[in-house]
Every structure is written in C-alpha cells, then in structure tokens.
Amino acid sequence: MIPSVRDLLALAKIRITVVAVFTGYTAIAVHGVHATDWAFIAPCLVALVLLGAAANTLNQLFERDIDAIMSRTRNRRPIPAGRVTPAQAVGVAITAFAGCTAIMLGVYGSWLAAALCAFTLAYYSFFYTLYLKRRHWSNIVIGGVPGAMGPPIAWAAVAGGMDWAPVAMFILIFLWTPPHVWALAIRLKDDYAKAGVPMLPVVKGVDETTRQIFIYTVITVIGSLLLPWGIEVVEDGKAYLILAVVLGAVFIGWTWILWRRRPVMPTMPLFRFSIIYISLLFVGLIVDGLRGRAP
After folding, report:
1. Reported pTM
2. What's the structural domain count of the chain?
C-alpha cells in the first residue's frame, strides 16, 4: 500500500520542516541579492523540505521502538501505527535526500550546500537519533545542530559561500533549542521515562530543568542582542532590535517565574511562546533585510 499524503507529511514532521524552510529563507532575505527572485530561490526551499523529509523519516524509522511505547507518538506516527512499513520509510528517505542533493548540485552547483545537507542528515538521523538521544540528558543541547542548519544551507546555495550572517542565525537557533524543547519535555516527562529516554526532566528532575530553561533563555536573549551586530541590514534596521528587546524581556521574565514558582506552573504556554519568539525574531530579520535591500 502506498503511503498517504497525510502519512508522508507526518514522516516529514512537516511543521518542524516548515520552520527550517522559513529560517532558510530568512538567510536569503538578509543576503538580499535574490530575496524576491522566487524562480531562483524556490528550488532551494524545496531542497530544504526534501532534506527535512529525509532526516525526519530516518529519525522515525530508527525511533519506531520508542514511538511505539510513548502515548504521544504511538498512533500519530505512521511507522509504529503500521501505516508505513520500514522499507517504505527507507525508500522515502532515499528519494527525498537524492532530490535535495540533485537540486543543490544541479540547480545551484553548490558542493558546500550539498555537503551541509549531508552533514545535517547524518548528524540528526544517526548521531543524535541512534546514539546521543538514548544515552545522555544533554541530547537536546548537542542535538540542536541540525535544526539550526537552515540558514547556512540556504546561504551556501544562493551565495556560493559562507558569511557571518548565516552563522549568527545558526547560533541563535542552536541556543534557543534547549529551553524550547525542555518546556515540552516537562509535559512529556512520564512518557519519556516509560520509553527509557534520558531527557533532562527524567534524569535531573523538573526543578533542575526549570533552572536550566531560565539559564539558557538568558543566554539566548543575550545572544539575540549581540550576534546580529556586524550584519549590515540589522545595524541599519529597527524591526529586529525592537522585537529582540521586547520579546527577550518577556521570555526571561516568564522563565524566571517558571523556575521560582512552586509547584511548577504549566509549561506548554511557554513552549508555544518560544515558537512565537524565534519566529518573530526571524520575521524582524526578513523585514530589515528586505527594507535594507530596497532600491
């Protein structure tokens, strides 16, 4: 049986993949030369979708034993639910990654972009999924690399090289990932414990997790204010800086209250706010980028 479109989207973790595409476009907008040349940049965005589909499909293939135990994923993900076979998942991953590589090499002629895509796939699917996630509570800290690769990959494709701007965006997403994921992990602590996954709330407890969320949020906000300097469109614009200051103050205040409050307050609203936070920061970068390149 051929997998349905719904199951293919589930294999791709399409919402997570869309975030990677969005951050990738942000790098293109900040670069500016091809920011609105959709015929030129559309293949790059498609390649990012295909990369996300390949990496996330392999992630679910390798985690099918865990997903079958956790109530959150047992029926939602197509492999443990029996709607997609492991062989089909392998086929989806190979086809998607081949398409991604063909675009980066055939359309953009960028060996750097293709290499970064291969690194992202290998890091997430093999190092993080098969090794790190099952062994240490720092899995999310070190494992944040693949989710932050959208800007460097997109920049390498359209610019043919690398610069500080996509590196700064990478670091910002990397710093933001732990407090974002740990807010969800607190909610799913019992599920992770049942599956034997050593997430921070399981290993160190909820109190320590809220402390780490606060610490990483402070680091993230400081990074959001320091990293973009040296990027011309940010220095000339105002949208990003205003959003970084206002949203950063809210983020720090919220996580401080979360850490100090006993018993622990619900963390899912913070999890959702963290998505809004990073999304609006990148919207600010896009606005400043497009405005800075306007004739």
Report:
1. 0.94
2. 1
